[in-house]
Write a structure and sequence with these properties.
The chain has 529 residues and is mainly α. Strands 3-4-6-5 form a four-stranded mixed beta sheet. Strands 1-2 form a two-stranded antiparallel ribbon. It is globular. The chain has helices at residues 2-11, 18-31, 43-55, 67-76, 82-125, 128-134, 140-156, 171-188, 197-210, 213-216, 220-249, 266-274, 279-292, 312-320, 323-338, 346-361, 375-384, 394-411, 445-455, 497-502, 505-512, and strands at 297-300, 303-306, 461-464, 492-496, 515-520, 524-528. Helix content is 56%, strand content 5%.
Length: 529
């Protein structure tokens, strides 16, 4: 997993969101300012900042653009090498992604033994979504991994071990609640989409005490007090971690946002004001609510629409998850519910991702499975429990499915973002069914430059590109065909597949009257006119 993620990180140009986070991380490092990118809390960008600090880029403190312009200025207009800077920014996230693999292994081993742990780790390491987004300087995988870690620690806070029924070391239950709170706080301090899981984890902290009746021999009232005490510790430590992440950027918590913060009314505003979190966090929530109120375009199975579809994420997961992994996820969930000694663990493994999936399905941004990248983590743990089913063919079938997952994943190397499984035509067919970060997030601009230089030297190029990269930096000298009469568009028409999916009017006509002659990274199509 480390090898394929580092290779992917080396070869990919900046995706849409990365320059925002890298630019904000540079502001944290040099100016200790919370003014940029308030819609996401600081912790994930502090992780990225570690790589930015190691790269030591030149930072132009006088520049005052918006957050997207800030990142492009840092990468392309400040005398820095964007390849080197992006690699360093991505490396801390890669390290975290690998560390979360150890949590997946430990969690599944606690439930199903070493074999279950290894099965879960295999599924995680070969998950195309985990590899794709774990190799980027973005926030989705860090948030999901911190949340998984919190749930695992809550499970370990119980007085009785899940596999054997043994009483665990007394230090475990005492230390696990504050550590779980720290991990939960880290998730909330990375992305606000972790917030729906907070009440679930607090309930699990209370419910865990009730599972200890046999081990402790305590009465109901005492167990309830114990559970509420654990929940209070988890909540208090989580809030403290969120505050600490903001104080780490600016101990004075100054906040003068570069972009205006939307006004929120009604219940949402009351909920925002109730949060015991920094003012910049609450302002970021208002920005998120403003984004949710926007009418975004979605694309699913060839249909372009405005708004959102509640079934978008399940459908996208069906396309972008290896078939063997889908089978093992389902079998693992059934095993958790059907095997008697595993049932107490089912709420820990299944309930948090179910709640987060439900929350994500109500969102208005149908942009990709990265919004549910926690599923390959939690459901890998569930899949490890398949090996507890005592049927003669279970090890053979499970091993065959795991091998199928590994082969499917390796065959897509190094194009993990546009992965889709064999039932939907593999990565070459993903753009026919999905768009945005499922396929084309601007990652292949460097590969496009190499292709044009090698196969089409000297030809005239027209480019419609989705991404945050600067084509001219990579030697791509092209014009936008949408600003000239169609009759003048001759030569190579190069279009990012997300723009192909959304093409209407003049661009659709140019594509329709061109001839597809090449593709780059399964995310960019080259037409000849």
């Amino acid at each position: 997993m480390a090898a394929v993620m580092v290779t992917t990180a080396v070869e990919q140009t900046p995706t849409v969101d990365e320059p925002v986070y890298v630019g904000t991380a540079a502001v944290y490092l040099h100016e200790h300012s919370l003014d940029y990118n308030p819609e996401h809390p600081p912790l994930g960008k502090l992780v990225v900042m570690a790589g930015v600090a190691a790269a030591g880029p030149h930072f132009d403190a006088s520049y005052r653009g918006d957050q997207g312009q800030l990142g492009r200025h840092l990468l392309y207009e400040s005398g820095n090498d964007p390849w080197r800077l992006m690699l360093w920014a991505r490396l801390p996230v890669i390290a975290l992604t690998l560390a979360f693999g150890l949590v997946v292994f430990a969690f599944a081993r606690d439930l199903a033994g070493a074999g279950g742990g290894l099965l879960a780790l295999t599924l995680y390491t070969f998950s195309p979504d985990a590899v794709a987004h774990g190799s980027l300087a973005t926030l989705d995988v860090p948030m999901a991994g911190f949340l998984l870690t919190s749930v695992w620690l809550l499970r370990r806070a119980r007085h009785v071990s899940g596999v054997t029924g043994r009483t665990v070391a007394p230090s475990g239950p005492r230390l696990c609640p504050p550590l779980a709170g720290a991990a939960l706080g880290a998730a909330v301090a990375t992305k606000m989409s972790a917030l729906p899981a907070v009440p679930v984890l607090l309930l699990l902290a209370v419910a865990g005490a009730w599972e200890e009746r046999g081990a402790r021999g305590a009465g109901r009232r005492r167990l309830l007090v114990l559970g509420l005490g654990r929940a209070a510790v988890v909540a208090a430590v989580a809030v403290a971690v969120v505050w600490a992440s903001y104080l780490a950027v600016d101990p004075r918590l100054r906040f003068s946002p570069v972009a205006p913060v939307p006004v929120v009314h009604g219940l949402r505003e009351r909920l925002v004001e109730l949060l015991p979190l920094p003012g910049a966090y609450r302002a970021g929530m208002r920005v998120q609510f403003g984004l949710e109120d926007h009418a975004w375009q979605g694309f699913l199975f060839g249909h372009l629409y405005t708004g959102s579809r509640w079934y978008y994420l399940p459908a996208a997961l069906l396309v972008k998850t290896p078939l063997g992994m889908l089978a093992l996820w389902a079998a693992g969930a059934v095993a958790l519910l059907a095997v008697r000694r595993l049932r107490p663990a089912a709420p820990y493994v299944l309930l948090p991702p179910a709640v987060l999936l439900g929350a994500a399905m109500t969102g208005t941004r149908d942009f990709g499975t990265r919004y549910v990248v926690f599923l390959p983590m939690f459901l890998a743990v569930a899949a490890g429990c398949v090996l507890t089913v005592r049927l003669r063919r279970t090890p053979v079938v499970t091993g065959a499915l795991a091998l199928y997952v590994a082969v499917s994943s390796l065959l897509t190397f190094p194009y993990y973002l546009p992965y889709s499984n064999e039932a939907f035509g593999g990565p070459a067919g993903t753009h026919l069914r999905l768009h945005d970060s499922n396929v084309d997030w601007g990652q292949d601009l460097g590969r496009l430059a190499d292709r044009l230089r090698e196969r089409y030297p000297g030809e005239r190029v027209w480019l419609v590109y989705k991404g945050s990269g600067v084509p001219s930096y990579y030697g791509i000298h092209a014009r936008d065909p949408r600003g000239v009469p169609p009759g003048e568009v001759h030569g190579l028409l190069v279009v990012s597949d997300s723009w192909v999916a959304k093409a209407r009017g003049r661009l659709a006509m140019l594509i329709r009257t061109g001839r597809a002659v090449d593709e780059v990274g399964h995310s960019i199509t080259v037409y000849r006119r």
